[in-house]
């Protein structure tokens, strides 16, 4: 159940943003077993001067062209799945002609009690999940 946020430079074309979100979703499905119907994303645009990113911290990047992937999802993926996700995202970026060096990816994990999509309550209560699902 991911919710993706893409933080992008304001000059990045809409088509590129959509292609990046599509590849992110496909990568989550393929590497982390995400349900293909769990497709949620917000795209936030920033002027270059508001993207304060170190150009060489743990890799080279052009701060004015960097896309930041913020992925919020249910906890439970293995370290191997997460590493596969990071590699797959960058492989897919390269395939669409986007320099993968200009990407930062981070995950925020939570539990079913932390999500609600309707008046019915949390995902935990709607799906009748046990305390172990927390």
Overall number of domains: 1
The CATH class label is Alpha Beta
**How would you state the average pLDDT, rounded?**
91
The backbone outline, from C-alpha atoms, is globular
Low-confidence stretches: none
Rg from alpha-carbon coordinates: 16 Å
Structural class: alpha/beta
User: Gap between N and C termini, in Å?
Assistant: 14 Å
- Strand count, sense and closure of the main sheet? 4 strands, mixed
Counting DSSP H or I runs of 4 or more residues, the number of helices is: 3
Named CATH architecture: 2-Layer Sandwich
| CATH fold-level topology | Macrophage Migration Inhibitory Factor
Describe the structure.
This protein has helices at 14-32, 79-95, 123-127, and strands at 3-9, 41-46, 67-74, 103-110, 116-118, 121-122. The protein has a single domain, classed as 2-Layer Sandwich (Macrophage Migration Inhibitory Factor). Helix 1 (14-32) runs antiparallel to helix 2. The strands form 2 sheets. A 4-stranded mixed β-sheet has the order 2-1-3-4, with no helix packed on it. Strands 5-6 form a two-stranded antiparallel ribbon. The longest helix is centred in the first third of the chain and has 19 residues, at 14-32. A hairpin with a 2-residue loop joins strand 5 and strand 6 (121-122). It is of the alpha/beta class. It is built from 3 helices and 6 strands; from the N terminus they run E-H-E-E-H-E-E-E-H.
